[in-house]
Design brief:
With about 325 residues, the chain is mostly helical. The protein folds into 2 domains: about 270 residues, ABC transporter involved in vitamin B12 uptake, BtuC; about 35 residues. The protein is built from 13 helices and 2 strands. The chain has a two-stranded antiparallel ribbon with strand order 1-2. Helix 4 packs antiparallel against helix 5, helix 4 runs antiparallel to helix 10 and helix 7 packs across helix 8. The two termini are about 40 Å apart. The mean pLDDT is about 95. One of its GO terms (cellular component) is plasma membrane. This is Autoinducer 2 import system permease protein LsrD. It holds the Pfam family BPD_transp_2. Its main location: membrane.
């Protein structure tokens, strides 16, 4: 029987709220319903990619191919749509591509014990190149009612369907992470792989599933980003890989694995998008935006590491005191 995990609100949540309130005072036009919805919309594709990244980091590994799979999904959507292929077939093909890349990564890493950095870097390079070749190195525009709907259609109040779709996917992933054997096993494998093996957990199976889901989620993000822009850009996912890593880590899932999870990643993603929106409205140049964002990310990680070390030291001190 799997013990249901409690959903804890990470410390980064408070910082996100404070940052949002701060920008409301210092950035002109930041405090508006339109901008709030826009921040949520701009967070969607990054969050979906980051969901898969969260699970790969949770098991003390990572998936560098997420951005390339996303780009490939967007390009496939545009090129196949322009070729007159039915939308259902396009979506199935894009998802199948995600399944294929995720399965390839998973098999090489879990079964053949390839290094995860080398493996996912290789698939990243392969599919980044394929996306450029298929698109002839240029952004491919297209018209597709389904894609336009999921990317740009709104509900009353201006809420995009894209936000609803992302919320549903995130909710499903949170449930899987906190209430299933697979979710429990991810924390166990990331916490101590040897102990997980000794306890009877099929580590290879769980590693494979993590990369499989990462590939699927990245391909879904490719579909959504194509719908948002009505175009398939072969380089659209270039920045997503490391931005997703940042969202995951500042959300409380460390590279050593074993703790954290998707709830923290949601707040990490919101933090990055709030920063982008706020700094843009303050008139900060894009180059400086990246520098400022980088400084804030490093600062948050340092604070988290310091707090973690303090907790560990206090725990060891109590154990030593009790032993005396």
């Amino acid at each position: 029987m799997i013990k249901k995990g409690k959903i804890k609100i990470p410390g980064i949540a408070l910082f996100v709220i404070v940052l949002y309130i701060l920008f409301c005072f210092i950035a002109q036009s930041f405090f508006s319903w339109y901008n709030f919805v826009l921040i949520l919309r701009n967070s969607c594709t990054l969050l979906i990619v980051s969901l898969g990244m969260t699970w790969s980091i949770l098991i003390a590994q990572t998936d560098l191919s997420v951005g390339s799979v996303m780009s490939m999904g967007a390009v496939m959507s545009a090129v196949m749509s322009n070729a007159g292929i039915p939308t259902v077939v396009i979506v199935i093909c894009v998802l199948a591509m995600g399944v294929g890349v995720g399965s390839l990564n998973g098999i090489l890493i879990s079964k053949f014990k390839f290094d995860f950095w080398v493996t996912t870097f290789s698939t990243m390079s392969i599919f980044a190149g394929l996306a450029l070749v298929i698109a002839n190195g240029a952004t491919v525009g297209f018209e597709n009612k389904f894609y336009d709907f999921i990317g740009n259609a709104t509900l009353p109040g201006g809420i995009y369907w894209l936000i609803i779709i992302t919320a549903l996917i995130s909710g499903i992933c949170i449930y899987v992470e906190r209430n299933t054997e697979f979710g429990f096993n991810m924390f166990s494998v990331g916490g101590c792989e040897s102990a997980a093996i000794d306890s009877g957990i099929n580590v290879a199976k769980n590693q494979f599933l993590v990369y499989l889901f990462s590939g699927i989620l990245s391909s879904i993000s490719g579909i959504l980003v194509a719908g948002m822009s009505n175009a398939g850009a072969p380089t659209v996912g270039v920045d997503y890989t490391f931005t997703a890593m940042a969202a995951v880590v500042i959300g409380g899932t460390p590279f050593i694995g074993g703790k954290g999870g998707i709830v923290g990643t949601i707040f990490g993603t919101l933090l990055l998008r709030i920063l982008t929106s706020g700094l843009s409205m303050m008139g900060i140049a894009p180059t400086w935006q990246k520098a400022i964002t980088g400084v804030i990310i490093v600062s948050l990680i340092v604070v988290d590491v310091v707090n973690e070390n303090r907790v560990v030291k206090n725990g060891l001190r109590r154990i030593y005191t009790d032993a005396e």
